[in-house]
Design brief:
This protein is mainly α. Helices cover 85% and strands 0% of the residues.
Length: 116
Amino acid sequence: MTDVKIISLIAGAAVIIVMVELLRRRQLKEKYAVLWLVMSIAVAVLAVAPGLLDSVAGSLSVADPVNLLLFVGLLVLLAVCVHLSWESSRLEDETRSLAEELALLRNQVEQHHPPS
């Protein structure tokens, strides 16, 4: 086994271990952990069977398999960024709504029980 395969396997295993530990400690939601677990498994599979990437690149008429790997990686990172932007926007709207509701409730409490 070459050094690159060994490093790739170690990296894939390390990501799996970290994700499982973060899930166990409830510091990461399952929906995010699934993405990283799938990515780490893909890295491990490509480390064990690098010919798989060669055959996929060949069937897609990509000259260099590394170009395909980088392109797919870029697409995955773009998808993650878009998803996190969407989540951030949704949470910002929810936070604003909750702050407005809290202000209204405080106003009602102060009207019924004015400060002494």
